[in-house]
Amino acid sequence: MESIDKEYVLNSYARNYVNFVRAKGATVIDESGKEYIDFSSGIGVVSVGHSNDRVNSAICDQISKITHISNLFLIEPQARLAKKIVKLSGYDMRVFFANSGAEANEGAIKIARKYGEIDGEVKRYKIITLKNSFHGRTISTLKATGQDKMHNYFGPFPDGFVYADDISSIYSLLDDHTIGVMLELVQGEGGVEPLDKESIKALADELKKRDILLIVDEVQTGVYRTGEFLASNLYEIEPDIITLAKGLGGGVPIACVMTNKKDIFSPGDHGSTYGGNYLVTRASLEVLDILKEQSDANLLQKRIERFSSKLQEIANLYPNIIKKSVGVALMRGFRIVDGDTLSKIVELSFKEGLLVLKAGRDTLRFLPPLTISDEEMELGFEKLNKVFHTISNG
Ligand SMILES: Cc1ncc(COP(=O)(O)O)c(C=O)c1O
Q1: What pLDDT, on the 0 to 100 scale, is given for residue 119?
Q2: How many whole angstroms separate alpha carbon 89 and alpha carbon 107?
């Protein structure tokens, strides 16, 4: 299969050629029967674990009825899902459904740009993002992504994106042309770096005063990943625009942008053929039900505490390798002494049967399913300990 993949699929990923054939919960099995504990959730996607029975049943039921009709018609589970997302968020917003994080962020940029239009002309168009951000790989979201290395090819890019080094340097960039500030509250790809809560609250207040939109990219942080439904809830702010993807569908491709500018779009302003079809919205409704139940029953909180204390044990044991423990809830990382050691950890973990991720140059990243069992967590940390022990002993 590897040779077919190499011959026919464009070479855009540094792919590991293991062939996974089955998965359940936080356990993934390859074609040789080897089992892996998944501390990555397919990069934060399988929030309710692999092959979740309830999500599977919802999908099977839905595909036996109707899968797709187009957004030219009412899609009942889409309407129900929009209501559920808005109610869970606690904000007074409306939702547009897309298929990926980048696409949701494109929607956010369009909403901001339309809001910046005065008398038919886009007078306020500037969107400020952070240098260490990641917002996607379409042309606009690549440009919104502040990391220089992402802008090596693919130009010319759209105008109107400005990068700030950090939160405090955003203020001096705000001007009469600024329409929005777009942030991840915990920078995922940039190294699992949480932004400072008080600084964010102060920035949110200032933006509100100046009628500049606060756009929060919750593609990775959203849907209980940080313990609350949204990281925006955790940070106690009221953004104007929020984007979600990844964990929202538990494995089906669904994303959304939501905004308090409830009447911003008129028919024709924005659209998506697939966005929010029966299949994905029905699956997502089930995902949200499961996660809300787990959160209400305090199970999610207990899991977060358990995972955190296990991480702390490892961090205490290997201060020679781990410089710092970073992140929140089940979006976590270790800053590793250097990039080579980080690569070795990821490689050895894989051999040991543990799936972990890298973020940025020097961060080992953990995004376990939010429903991971105690046994799977225990086994995963045994494997991780073994890997660190091996590396620590040279
Ligand atoms: C914060 C953030 N925004 C946007 C994206 C892009 O999402 P997608 O790959 O679904 O387009 C990602 C993906 O990792 C992300 O972490």
Answers
A1: 72
A2: 19
Rounded CA separation 316/85 (Å):
39
| 245 ligand 1 Cβ < 6 A | yes
* Of 375, 380, 267, 389, the residue nearest 318 (C-alpha): 389
| Residue 136 alpha carbon to ligand 1 centre in Å | 5
Residue 228, pLDDT score: 98
Residue 28 to residue 34: CA distance in whole angstroms: 8
Half-sphere exposure for 209 (CA within 13 Å, toward CB): 8
Residue nearest to atom 3 of ligand 1 (CA): 135
Yes or no: say if 385 and 315 are a contact pair by the CB < 8 Å rule: no
86 in a structural domain: yes
pLDDT at 4: 96
pLDDT at 121: 72
Answer whether 40 contacts ligand 1 (Cβ < 6 A).
Answer: no
Cβ–Cβ under 8 Å, residues 332 and 326: yes
Same domain, 308 and 203: no
pLDDT, residue 186, reads 98
Whether 174 and 167 have beta carbons less than 8 Å apart is answered as no
Question: Is residue 200 domain-shared with residue 260, that is, in the same domain?
Answer: yes
Domain count for the chain: 2
User: What integer pLDDT is reported at residue 322 of this predicted model?
Assistant: 98
- Whether 337 is in a domain gets the answer no
Q: Atom 4, ligand 1: which residue's CA is nearest?
A: 135
Q: Is 321 exposed, middle or buried (0-12, 13-18, 19+ CB in 10 A)?
A: buried
One-letter identity of residue 155: G
For ligand 1, whether the C-beta of 360 sits within 6 Å is no
Within 8 A by CB and 6+ apart from 153, the residues are none
What is the CA(219)–ligand 1 centre distance, in A? 6
Q: What is the mean pLDDT of each run of 10 residues along the chain (394 residues)?
A: 95 96 98 98 98 98 98 98 98 98 98 88 91 97 95 95 98 97 96 97 98 98 98 98 98 98 97 98 98 98 98 98 97 97 98 96 97 98 98 90
